[in-house]
């Protein structure tokens, strides 16, 4: 809309009498108001930089220090021990000429006060950083808190008592430490012991020892050097080599999804649900830009918020894939019936009301115009292999109208798909429809999502919604935080009228959503068809099963004094053993956001203790507790920087840079994760009143299988009495069936809870 206004803000014609200039004052006024909004945001950013730059102090504390110094000087005392006099001697000559001796003394006191204030801030920040580096509290048993931890909690709360902004803690978070190479190798060998025979384990031990004595220590030195220089020695390489360097489709293989409420659809009106969902997302972005969101924390410890920076106005660009982020965007990109639209969500510097966005969405739904040639399947290019998409983008979308339309999608705040299908747990086959709902969010029709966007919102014909997120820029907990806010704001804050429409007034003079125009040659259509065929084969092979487990939840598990996550992970080990007749290397994602720019670490859930319990035929309480305690300890070690896999991954990257091969690292990094698991955390339960609104329960989300012959399992622990599971596998593997595995999970965790209660 802003571009359109700028285009018609003035017109001129040349006449015999001269130039006839005609101004559109309405358009100029809107441009002016948009500019005012931009400047307000700039001022807000500058203000926030000052506030978080002096945290844990406050800007007003400078005045307190100045007054204290001046009062002390007035009382004929020198708090600076002669430094103020030295500062006065080094004042510029112009000040000596223009100011009296008293004036020079005051200026010198102000300079000294400012330097003292800055020194105090640095000292406080260093103290906070040292306090946040203490992680022993995680390893203490519940109810047995040491005196050291009690003092530590008091000091942390004292230093962080002032209300922080979202990014206030960033510079105080510790850096991720590099583990000792011997410790990593010992933990690795311990993790693979239950998976190997005695001869295989002996061979792997010899490989590990040879690696340490030869190449390992050399690689470790380079890694420690990087850790001294970089903010985080893992995250940049992890993003580049695990996500951005991959050439295979990111659909299914990398992107993941989030679901709507399980039992409730707030409105059956598609346009209305889109209006509230888009508004809620933009309200979250406003809070994010103003840093008004509370920092996410683990008990009293703040977590790194760096991943939030690229949440909106971000896209992944093919080629040597990169993540491109723009500072702001006043529009969203919308796909419907094979057509792409640019929908402006701001007018004259104000955010449109939910009712106005609904009105604009309805205009798109009612638009009868057909897709342009090749437009409807264009999104398939983002679903196929990355190299062809990169070549096509460079050749056909780097100039002209195609570039402008592609820019509108890539620079949009986010992507919206208005889907013609109905989804959700409904009809005569609710379980089957729930599985189809998950598959739809994971890949759709393979051409009606823009998989490169940081996240895409899907609004279905019956009012159900969901989300598909690209993985390189952030991990699932960051997106889950956004989605929790969106669902809660949509249902409880914005709400709907009795007939299911959004609340608010409509300005019917709003310009129509802008159709994006394309000039798509035959070569592009051909490549889009090839990408679609590849993506369709990948999508057809995915077997998804979603299972809401309501027999018990974390409330009953915690009464047994067992970690709910450990309980579920051991249940998964039991289920996998019964399904496949053996054990597998198991991946569980754990966050490392206790450290600056931290992302994830692997918890190797298959341990000696969990295998011992599984082999005991489900009936040994002591072994179950040993297994759960072991798992919880592994999780804590991963969170506190003592994990295995990121360290080994970075050592491997260094070896490649040096051009040397390690048989040990090559074998370790080629081991398949046949059971890949992740918990979706619920971070803002205060947004959901489950006592008064028990049906407003989120299903969480899921992801595709990591190995062709394995399972991908995601689960979310909701409230005290529910656990939702998402299981994925591939139809092409005869040994994996998602529904069967989910049924085994159901039975085995039920057996586990009964077993624990019997002893």
TrEMBL record:
GO terms for biological process: carnitine metabolic process; fatty acid beta-oxidation; long-chain fatty acid transport. It catalyses: (R)-carnitine + hexadecanoyl-CoA = O-hexadecanoyl-(R)-carnitine + CoA. Keywords: Acyltransferase, Fatty acid metabolism, Lipid metabolism, Membrane, Mitochondrion, Transferase, Transmembrane, Transmembrane helix, Transport. Its EC number is 2.3.1.21. Residues 176-743 form the Choline/carnitine acyltransferase domain. Pathway: Lipid metabolism; fatty acid beta-oxidation. The active site is at 471 (proton acceptor). Residues 1-47 form the Carnitine O-palmitoyltransferase N-terminal domain. It is found in: Mitochondrion outer membrane. It holds the Pfam family Carn_acyltransf. It is a multi-pass membrane protein. It is an enzyme of class 2 (transferase). InterPro entries: Carn_acyl_trans (IPR000542), CAT-like_dom_sf (IPR023213), Cho/carn_acyl_trans (IPR039551), Cho/carn_acyl_trans_2 (IPR042231), CPT_N (IPR032476). One of its GO terms (molecular function) is carnitine O-palmitoyltransferase activity. The chain crosses the membrane at residues 54-75. Its main location: mitochondrion. GO terms for cellular component: mitochondrial outer membrane. Belongs to the carnitine/choline acetyltransferase family. PANTHER family: CARNITINE O-ACYLTRANSFERASE, CARNITINE O-PALMITOYLTRANSFERASE. This is carnitine O-palmitoyltransferase.
């Amino acid at each position: 809309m802003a571009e359109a206004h700028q285009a018609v803000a003035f017109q001129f014609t040349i006449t015999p009498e001269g130039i006839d200039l005609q101004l559109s004052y309405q358009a100029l006024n809107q441009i002016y108001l948009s500019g005012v909004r931009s400047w307000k945001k700039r001022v807000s950013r500058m203000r926030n930089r000052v506030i978080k730059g002096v945290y844990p102090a406050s800007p007003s504390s400078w005045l307190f220090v100045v007054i204290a110094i001046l009062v002390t000087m007035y009382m004929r005392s020198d708090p600076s021990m002669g430094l103020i006099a030295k500062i006065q001697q080094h004042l510029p000559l112009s000040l000596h000429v223009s100011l009296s001796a008293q004036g020079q003394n005051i200026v010198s006191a102000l300079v000294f006060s400012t330097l003292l204030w800055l020194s105090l801030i640095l000292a406080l920040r260093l103290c906070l950083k040292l306090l946040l580096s203490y992680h022993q509290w995680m390893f203490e048993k519940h109810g047995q808190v040491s005196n050291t931890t009690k003092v530590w909690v008091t000091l942390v709360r004292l230093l962080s008592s002032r209300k922080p902004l979202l990014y206030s803690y960033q510079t105080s978070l510790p850096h991720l430490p590099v583990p000792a190479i011997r410790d990593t190798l010992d933990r690795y060998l311990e993790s693979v012991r239950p998976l190997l025979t005695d001869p295989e384990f002996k061979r792997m031990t010899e490989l590990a020892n040879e690696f340490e004595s030869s190449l390992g220590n050399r690689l470790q030195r380079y890694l420690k050097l990087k850790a001294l220089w970089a903010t985080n020695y893992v995250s940049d390489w992890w993003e580049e080599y695990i996500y951005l360097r991959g050439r295979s489709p990111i659909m299914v293989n990398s992107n993941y999804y989030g679901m709507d409420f399980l039992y409730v659809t707030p409105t059956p009106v598609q346009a209305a649900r889109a209006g509230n969902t888009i508004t809620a997302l933009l309200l979250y972005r406003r809070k994010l830009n103003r840093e008004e969101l509370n920092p996410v924390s683990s008990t009293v410890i703040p977590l790194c918020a760096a991943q939030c920076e690229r949440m909106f106005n971000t896209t992944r660009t093919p080629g040597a894939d990169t993540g491109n982020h723009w500072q702001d965007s006043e529009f969203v990109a919308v796909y419907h019936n094979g057509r792409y639209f640019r929908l402006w969500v701001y007018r004259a510097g104000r955010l449109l009301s939910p009712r106005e966005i609904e009105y604009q969405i309805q205009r798109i739904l009612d638009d009868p115009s057909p897709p342009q040639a090749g437009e409807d399947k264009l999104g398939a290019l983002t679903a196929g292999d990355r190299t062809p998409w990169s070549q096509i983008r460079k050749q056909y979308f780097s100039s002209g109208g195609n570039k402008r339309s592609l820019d509108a999608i890539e620079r949009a705040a986010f992507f919206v798909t208005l889907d013609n299908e109905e989804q959700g747990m409904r009809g005569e086959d609710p379980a089957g429809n729930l599985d189809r709902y998950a598959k739809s969010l994971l890949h759709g029709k393979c051409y009606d999502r823009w998989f490169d966007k940081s996240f895409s919102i899907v609004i279905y014909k019956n009012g159900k919604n969901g989300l598909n997120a690209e993985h390189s820029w952030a991990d699932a907990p960051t997106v889950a935080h956004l989605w929790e806010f969106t669902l809660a704001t949509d249902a409880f804050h914005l709400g709907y009228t009795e007939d299911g429409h959004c609340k608010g007034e409509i300005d019917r003079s709003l310009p129509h959503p802008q159709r994006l125009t394309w000039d798509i040659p035959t070569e592009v259509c051909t490549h889009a068809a090839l990408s679609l065929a590849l993506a369709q084969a990948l999508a057809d092979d995915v077997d998804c099963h979603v299972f809401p487990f309501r027999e018990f939840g974390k409330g009953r598990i915690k009464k047994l004094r067992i970690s709910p996550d450990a309980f579920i992970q051991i249940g998964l080990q039991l289920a996998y053993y019964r399904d496949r007749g053996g054990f597998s290397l198991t991946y569980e994602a754990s966050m490392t956001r206790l450290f600056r720019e931290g992302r994830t670490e692997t918890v190797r859930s298959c341990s000696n203790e969990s295998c011992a319990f599984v082999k005991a035929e489900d009936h040994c309480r002591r072994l179950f507790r040993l297994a759960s305690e072991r798992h919880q300890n592994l999780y804590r070690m991963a969170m506190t920087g003592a994990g295995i896999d990121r360290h080994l991954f970075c050592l491997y990257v260094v070896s490649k840079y040096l051009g040397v091969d390690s048989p040990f690292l090559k074998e370790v990094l080629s081991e398949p994760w046949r059971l890949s698991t992740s918990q979706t955390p619920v971070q803002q339960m205060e947004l959901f009143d489950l006592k008064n609104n028990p049906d407003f329960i989120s299903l969480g989300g899921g992801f595709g299988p990591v190995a062709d012959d394995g399972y991908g399992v995601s689960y979310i622990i909701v409230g005290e009495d529910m656990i939702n599971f998402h299981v994925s596998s591939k139809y092409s593997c005869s040994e994996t069936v998602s529904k069967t595995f989910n049924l085994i999970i159901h039975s085995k965790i039920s057996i586990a809870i009964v077993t624990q209660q019997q002893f």
